[in-house]
What we know:
Distance between the termini: 35 Å
Number of strands: 10
Structural class: alpha/beta
Oligomer: single chain
Order of helices and strands: EHHEEEEHHEHEHEHEHHEH
Helix content: 25-40%
Number of helices: 10
Amino acid sequence: MMIRQVTLRLLGVFGIALVLTGVTNTPSGSFTAAAAEAHETTWSDEPMAAGRSLFAFDGWSGPAVPIWAYVPVDVDRTSAPIMFLMHGAKRDSRRYLEEWVDEADTKGFIIVAPQFEKSDWRGSYYNRGAVLERSSGELRERSQWSFSAIEPIFDAVVAQLGSSQDKYTMYGHSAGAQFIHRFMFLHPNARVKRYLPANAGWYSFPDMSINFPYGLGGIPVSEEDLRAALAQDVVLLLGDQDIDTEHSSLNRSKGAMAQGEHRFARGKNFHAAAKALAEKNGWEFNWTVRVIPDVAHSNGGIAAGAFDLVE
């Protein structure tokens, strides 16, 4: 068996300059030019250096994944908790990272924010995990799923940091929350200490009678996998003002509307369905809900009310 070497390939200062000028096929994000300039001198040309760094990960079977990372200056990089920060549909990892920096400094954890580029993962292919072929609906090779990049990235980051961490927290907002709860069902052996899905627009309910992506039918999730997922440490994060039924990016398909009229309702219904399934089967259930007051569909708003959950 050939073992592919895990590598961290540096984008460096030139790559960052391309980002700031908006050149295609580089990490983009949604910063204004002024905000980008303000942070230009703080980015390192060394992966996982103290402060901010930008590099590309190519140590897996899929396309190279740009990584935006933050290591608090005074943190012990060998023992600090590591959080994977999964972006939403706009693929704006850099904005997400900046909205978590103060919290990382306060709590002392390291942020790893992969960016799944639209050029490689069109539409909702990223947050659905690229599990099924677009045209045929047939199952794709597991090594090609977007989900399959995460564990190799973790290994590479741990090696680069010289870290003793063997688990990580996984947070995602909006489409990122979709990514991580599906990841949990399909990667039951992932080394995740705690899942923090926040304000997902819609869900894959733990129901084998509903076809993926609105349920788990037709994909390789066994009853054992489902039972393991319900036993995971999951804190479902919901902004109590994420109730806009006319939000521009709200999924209004039949499958999504069956889950609730808005994101807040869908999140509560997702948790209730999982709890009911666990109780019906006598399974362990470790999911909880944390409602963040006065927060709508905002990654930054959720961050301020959830950073204490990173372990």
